[in-house]
Structure formats: structure tokens, C-alpha cells
Fold these 4 entries.
Entry 1:
Amino acid sequence: MSIVDKPFAAEMVTTKGKVYKFDAIECMAQFIQEEDENNIALLLVRDFNNPDEWVDANSAFFLISKELPSPMGGYLSAYPTKTAAEAMQAEKGGEILTWEQLKQKYAR
């Protein structure tokens, strides 16, 4: 998949080294619902404020804000710290979630 909007991109790397690229974080959150977590080595998301930087999804904070439309319509952006997520929330509104909370939101 080609990445349309870099600040919203995500990647999953399996224990065998296969890389799955996602145009939006919500796509990865949905995709991993079908995966055995023992086969996942890394889950990475782009830092919205520094889109050249990857952040481990497990330690990232996520903002769902209608003021930040992502490519697939989830309005979901990622930040390396809660402070960074709160700063964007103060500007754009929305709800902050951890990766565990986000996975639950996209659970089928």
C-alpha cells in the first residue's frame, strides 16, 4: 500500500520480518484483530507532529478528533507522549486513548 498522508501512517512487523504498511492507524488497529499477537514483533505509528519519526504503538497516545481528518476517516492521530496528545487536544478537541483502549474500540 502506498502512504497518502504520512502523519497518519502505521506499520506492523511480524516476527518473521514481514512488514505491513497502513495508510491510517485505524486500518492497522482493525487488521491486527485477525492476527495472533505472538506473531507481531512491532507495531509502529507516525508521530503526528514529527511525521518522519516512528513511535511504538504500545507506548503512544492517540487522539480522535473531528478536526484532524485521517485518510480513512477515523480522525485518529498518534503522539509519543500524553503531554503531546493533550496539547493537540487543547487545540483541536477530541478524546485521548492508549493503544489498549484503541484496540478495544476497534475490536470486532
Entry 2:
Amino acid sequence: MFIISLTYQKSLDEVDTHLNAHIEFLKDAYAKGIFLASGRKNPRTGGIILALATNRAEIEAIIALDPFYIHDVATYEITDFTPTMTSPKLSFLANH
């Protein structure tokens, strides 16, 4: 499992210019079962994505398709972790 932390490098006006394309990118990754949750940071300085993938290279390849990445709108920090304890609602994540 991966936590992807995006940090905006451009103004919110520039972020908003690419927001619809970024949302379509997110929807595609959700449809493929890769992304589990996503949303804005508060305050609005970037976003967080929870993802399931086989390895970091797969996540990096997916990120390379994000319009925020393509247009240098955000930087990405990828954290690989193995959930060893979850709430019952998220038990499917254990040991991924």
C-alpha cells in the first residue's frame, strides 16, 4: 500500500487550470482499483492519495500520467507501508 502526498508548486489559479484533468486521472485510477481514497490537504497546499499497487515503480508510472505531474503543478512524496492493523471496515488492507 502507498500513501502519495502531493504538494503544490504553483499558484492555486494554476492548480485549478489543471484540476478537471487531474480529476479524470483520479477517476481512471479508481476504476482500475488502484486508488482507494484521495482528497485535498487542509489548508489547500496539495493532496493525499491512498493506493494499492504491486510496487513503487507501478506507482511512479501512474503518477507520470497525472496532469499535475505533467505540468509541474505538484511534487510527489511516495510512502510504501504495510498495514498490520486496521479497523474491521478496512480489514481487506491488512498485510498489503
Entry 3:
Amino acid sequence: MNEHYHSIHGAVQESAFIYINNGFSFSKADPLNIFEAGFGTGLNALLTAIKSREGTREVNYTSIEKYPLSEEITSQLNHHQFAGNDGKDIFHLIHSSPWNSKVNICNNFNLHKIKGDITAIQLSGMYDLIYFDAFGPDKQPEIWTKEIFAGIAAATRKDGVFVTYSAKGEVKRNLKACGFNVSLLPGPPGKREMIRAVKI
């Protein structure tokens, strides 16, 4: 798709700012059920696992990915260097755990990776926090539609939180149409704004 997986201004910095600081730390749900659209390099899962160990609430993390990266690529990533002493082991467990099965990765953090297409499945379960980290609307417009957001809204609890790096007007309008109260927040370095929305 000729698209970067992360901001060229810093992958870890961007993910921590958007998904951890403005999503994980903002949500008060306990236990916390997270759904991620776009597993990608597994960075958001890694940062969430590390953050979850700082507290006591149980975190159940479900992520869907249509195009899983090969071990050849994931083995070259250095994200674990930013994740403390156990970062390397946890990152390895995240990537080596089987798809379509729930696995305990570390204290308080359970991972369920789904190999599939978000446009072709119906989400099961109810979620408190949504990490929407798919490729951008200009690269994958079919993933940013009102229909996709309606499916996510149906699987999001009242007061559930939705965070994404995108701040496009169409994304805001589609979220509002699906029952979210949408706010624009200052974005990470290199990006002026981001979206955080709360299910009404």
C-alpha cells in the first residue's frame, strides 16, 4: 500500500501518546477489555502489556489483523528496547502466541489475536476501549466507514473510549453518526490533532 506502519517521527512515541496516554490511562474500566483494529507490528499490544503490569486491573486485549507480518520482519523490530527489562521476552511472546486463541502474556494481560478482515466479521464480546490503528482512510477507505464504526459501536460499552491517530472530518462524522461523542485532542509530534471519542 506504500504506507508506513508508524509515524516517521517515532513509532513508540506516537503509540504511547495516542493509545496509552489518551486511551489506556483515560479509561476507568476494570477489568479493561480492549479491541484493536490493526495489530501491525504488535507495538500497541507491547506497550499496553507493559503498562498493565503497573496496576492491578485485568486487561483482555483482542486484535484483528488481515496481513500479519512474517517472523523475518518482526524479529528485526527493536520496540522491546523501549519496554523495560522484560520487554524482549514479552514482545517475543506477543508475536509467537498462536492466532485465534486467548493467551496469558504476563500478569494482568491476556491477548487474543484474530487473523481476519474487520470488514468481513461481526465482533463478538463487549469492549471498553478501542484502539483504531488501521492504515489511513486514503489507503483503506473501506475500514473507516460508517458501517465499520457501527459494528464497533455495537460492541462498545456505554462510556467506552475510542482513540485513533486520524482527525479527518469524515471519520469524526461517521463516529458521531454511530453514537460517539467526538473530541479533537492535540496530536503527537508531527501530527496536529487526533481523535478521542466516548460512546454515549
Entry 4:
Amino acid sequence: MFPLFETIKILDGKIYNLSFHQKRLEFSFQIYFQKKAPFLLSDIINIPKDFSKGLVKLRFLYSEKSYKLEFLHYKPRKIITLKIVENNEINYSLKFTDRSQINDLVHQKGTCDDILIIKNGFITDTSIANIVFYDGKEWVTPAIPLLMGTCRAKLLKENKIKEEVVKITDLYKFRAFCLINALNCNNLSPISIINICY
């Protein structure tokens, strides 16, 4: 019923990065429905009293003519280890509610916390986040992700990270990585590159 969605961070009643979510919503609407988006998030979102404290995950699900808001108290997952998986057919260029392709790949993670998806030899994303690598001087994010994340867009605009094409064979160049998404956007906390396994 709702083919697309946005995941939005709310902390103690404050909505984060809303302009970036609005921009992606408008882009996705134009691509998927081939028309201008009728939804303005700043007018639609009204935080219920029960979700006005703590960290909250808001899912804004939408179709061509309707939408739905889902609020959930959120506890971040601790992800340290990544399993490299390859799939050259996967497509998640928009934030689809159908995540079956990604979920199928997650079954290959073994004892690792999550997966790192490789497509046509290029590093893309994990199952729930964009990835950023540290080379000892700069933070670098793959120029060909599966999904253009809102946190990724924000950090690029602020010049805190930069884009580069990153192949799987480039992993040796980096010392560490971190994961960024709408709910984890303010802290580039390095995790040793040795935690990525084949």
C-alpha cells in the first residue's frame, strides 16, 4: 500500500535533518510517481506526547495520494563486524518498503553483526546504513551507494566527509570505518577495518 518511506530521527521532541528528508521525498516521488510530491513533512509531523522524550524512530510511509506515520521508541543496534556479500543485481536506489533483496543478503552474515554489500566490484552500503571509511586523514564514503542517505547528504554538504569510488580491492587503504544513517548521524566513531571479513 505504501511503496516508499522515510526514517526520521526525533530526540526529546526535536526532529532532525528534516530538510534532507523532504528533499529525498520529493526526488523519490518524482522518480517513482513521475509527479510533484504533495506532502510537506514539516506540516504533517505532529509528535504524540508519548513520544516527546527519548530517542524515537519515525517511519513516514507514503503512496501517491496517502501516507502513514509510525512512531517507535528506538534503541540503536551495536554493529561492529561486517560480512562482505556480493550481489550484482540488487537495486535499492529509492527507500522502498520492500526490502526483500536486502533481507535475503542479511541471511549470509553468519556470526557478523551485519553485511557490507558489494555490487559489480564496488562497495555500496550495509543493510541499514551508508558506510564511511577513514584513511588516516579523511573520511571517505563510496560514490556509488545503494541509497543516497540523508545523513550522508548532510555530512557531504558540511564537508565532513567526501565521495570517492571505492572498490572492494581498495579496502587495504583504510584504517577504520563507521556507519551512518538517519538515526546515527552526529558521531564519526571509528571501528577498525579488521572487523570487515570475507
